[in-house]
Amino acid sequence: MKPNSPLVRRQNGAFCYYTCPRLPVRHAFTTKYGGVSTGACQSMNLGFGRGDDPDNVRRNYRILSAALSLPYDRITMTRQVHQDTVVSVTADTAGTGLTLPLAWEADALITNLPGIPLAGFYADCVVTLLYDPASHSCGVCHAGWRGTARGILQKTVDAMAAQLGAQRDSLLAVIGPSIRVCCFETDADVPDAMEQQMGAWVQPFIHEKGPKFHVDLQGINAAQLQNAGLRPENIVDSGLCTYCHSDEFWSHRVTKGARGVQAGIICL
Known about the structure:
By secondary structure, the chain is an alpha+beta fold. Helix content is 22%, strand content 24%. It contains six helices and 14 strands. The strands form three sheets. The protein has a six-stranded mixed β-sheet. The chain has a five-stranded antiparallel β-sheet with strand order 1-2-3-14-6, with helices on one face. Strands 10-12-11 form a three-stranded antiparallel β-sheet.
């Protein structure tokens, strides 16, 4: 376990991943380690669009599914596009992206069906796992700064409530490893765009440092979760920075784009 993180580091053979003791369903935030990919994607790359051999990516999913007791052929993913679309996964669409063709572009997936692992990808962006014990529903949400500005995480909670009967006061959210305010340095265009879309309430999460700005994406997403009706004590922030811990996680900024991707995955 990294210092000050509520997540627990686990290992199954060479496969290393993190879990949250608060989440009572199968889940993981993966690391770089435990797969068969080579080159810039070495070794547990879970992205098909990174120049990796697709057979290696599928073998990595086999390793992950065996380690977490997940049904390989029902692992479901999406093409992430930094927007605010939420897709509800059904029995007919289980396996999309792995054993079925990619059928949608979206940055969040939700379901209340058992045995359908939902995967969201990260290499600095904020991936949040959601679980509601009252309705036994779950979700995964990917948010870079653009998705954060569009309120994708709050919209994911709204979709779980409206479509799956999720109860906001029992819903649990775990914010995964991602680039943190210490390292997410931007020019003025990013905070300007975020404030224009979200309003002045985001100002406390944006810190001016000389000509640059540092943005607290985890703080904004946690605030969005509270605005969506979650209890503060049901919001868990991993505290892990992918940039600071680029020895264990791929960071898009550290690698300048030559990298694989990790996944946050959850399954009822």
